[in-house]
Predict the structure.
Amino acid sequence: MGLPLSTALAFAVTVVLTLRLRPLALRLRITDKPGGRKQHIGEVPLVGGIAMFIGILVAALIMMIGGGLYLRDVGEPFGAGRLGLGIFAFPYPCWLR
């Protein structure tokens, strides 16, 4: 999958998630309210960052899967040797074997 298609897919995922998460954010009151420096009118849902993160994660996964790459370990986070992920390697390329 080429870069333009990956970018379009990441954008589409972000837009769809933003639109789908907006009503949930309003219902759960996960919103930014006007006041002080904030001059917007009404409550603004705070889900755009989550949608953007997931959209970018999709473009990254597409590139990793397309390139046959996966995360086998997370290095030495505690100084006690490599922390391997085993079968939880992300994404697990079992279809590439």
In short: Residues 3-70 form one domain. The chain is about 45% helix and 5% strand.
